[in-house]
Write a structure and sequence with these properties.
448 residues, alpha/beta, Rossmann fold, 14 helices
């Protein structure tokens, strides 16, 4: 029986473009840039200065708060500046810009093998923190914090998220097909920290080869199993996934640990294995380059900091001038106006399309068809939420449980009127969070 969650949508996966493309490592370009905010929480603090020579594996920015993450360099070279650089959202962000000398000289003990069975949970967490690992599925939550819940003895389920429900993305699929041993060892590392837990590798049924391979690999693993899920979007969202695998529910104010679960993306599990066992910090990640405007759709192992423009070149460039380029998947990704931006820890995909379906569609009045209501995985009322957002009635937005929205885009996808519902919810959620923060500050006496 295929497991799943309520509502959601069925979208064309378009995985075939890059699904069979074996991961290929590329060397970074001449200039690499490291934004200080590649994670949820406070930006990291730079610990290098202009003119300083840095090495592969060197920490160039350190976590600046309890919720923050280190940044590790992927090249050797010279720090050109510490300052503003163009980010994926089109704004200038604080970053460390390094000129790659193409020597790739490493720090001492880089790549040193370790036996994780001889390490305590605290030592494992420290190694993960020093490696700069965050959730690589897109959320960017610092992994060392996730693996340090208040009551570790109550964690009974570790979920390795191999769902990859966003169309076109095949990074996790390729990792499952090419590096299953790393995934299994990474899960053993996590399980060593939670003696009462078992691990589940969750995979959608549109990846039958991965299901078969990993099921065979874990057949003699008493604490690791594979869960085959229905192919439905947004199955890979943390809340949807927990319900599909365990039947448990969490809301926006809860972490998975509240219901005895921890969820890590497949790429994150591989990064944990490489950091703890192989002495390799998070300096690279796998990126899918796909879409009908890409000459050679592929999966590339890319140095964090490398520029999108260079990655596209390594994928054979564009077929003419694309109408739209997206960072991430088509459902939750960001449209780009420049490729001179750096790959960061959460950069999973670069898509290029010959046509822009959104630009060519025309928004009309709501016809009250209820499709958005039926699509919403959080069982919200998108039409009413949109009206509240348009009126900037954020109290009404909250009363409609608008803060439970996961911004998955399902409502926008099914809307026949082409109303930009998700964009209005993103705006309303940001404004509501800001207003709540001001209210909290006033109530705590922070503002007289």
């Amino acid at each position: 029986m295929w497991r799943s969650f309520a509502h959601g949508v069925h979208v064309d996966g378009n995985k075939s473009l890059a699904a069979d493309a074996v991961i290929r490592e590329i060397l970074p370009g001449k200039i690499v840039a490291y934004p200080l905010a590649q994670h949820i929480g406070r930006p990291a603090s730079p610990i290098v200065s202009e003119g300083e020579r840095v090495l592969v594996g060197q920490t160039i920015a350190q976590a600046s708060a309890p919720v923050s993450a280190d940044v590790v360099c992927a090249v050797s070279g010279t720090v050109k500046r510490v300052g503003a650089f163009l980010g994926v959202r089109g704004e200038m962000v604080d970053a460390i810009v390094v000129e790659n000398d193409e020597q790739y000289e490493t720090v001492e003990n880089f790549g040193q093998h370790r036996d994780y069975t001889q390490l305590s949970p605290n030592e494992i967490r420290d190694l993960i923190k020093a490696a700069g690992i965050v959730g690589l599925g897109g959320a960017g939550f610092p992994t060392h914090i996730k693996l340090n819940p208040p009551e570790p003895e109550k964690i009974d389920t570790i979920i390795a998220n191999g769902v990859e429900c966003e169309p076109y993305l095949t990074t996790d699929y390729r990792l499952m097909m090419e590096q299953p041993e790393k995934i299994i060892r990474g899960l053993h590392i996590i399980l060593s920290m939670f003696p009462n837990a078992k691990a589940v590798i969750a995979i959608e049924k549109n990846k039958p080869e991965a299901i078969r391979l990993l099921t065979e690999k874990v057949k003699n693993e008493p604490r690791i199993s594979v869960a085959a899920l229905k192919t439905k979007y947004p199955e890979g969202d943390e809340r949807m996934l927990i319900h599909a695998v365990t039947g448990r529910y969490i809301h926006s104010a809860q972490l998975p640990a509240a219901v005895g679960c921890l969820v890590d993306n497949i790429a994150t599990v591989v990064a944990i294995d490489e950091a703890v066992c192989d002495g390799l910090p998070l300096t690279h990640r796998v990126v899918t380059v796909s879409g009908d405007a890409v000459n050679e759709p592929c999966n590339l192992r890319v140095a964090c900091g490398d520029l999108y423009s260079h990655v596209i070149e390594e994928a054979g460039g564009f077929k003419g001038e694309p109408k739209k380029v997206i960072s991430g998947g088509p459902m939750m990704g960001l449209a780009l106006f420049s490729l001179e931006i750096p790959v960061v820890k959460t950069s999973s995909c670069i898509l290029a399309f010959a046509e822009d379906e959104v630009e060519e569609s025309k928004t009309t009045a709501c016809i009250h068809c209820g499709r958005c209501l039926r699509a919403c995985p959080e069982l919200l009322v998108p039409r009413s939420m949109h009206a509240a957002a348009q009126a900037e009635d954020f109290e009404r937005f909250m009363a409609l449980n608008g803060m439970e929205c996961i911004e998955c885009g399902s409502c926008t996808f099914v809307c026949p009127a082409k109303i930009p519902l998700t964009q209005s919810f993103q705006y309303a959620r940001r404004k509501t969070k800001a207003l709540l923060q001001v209210k909290t500050t006033k109530e705590s006496g922070g503002e007289k």
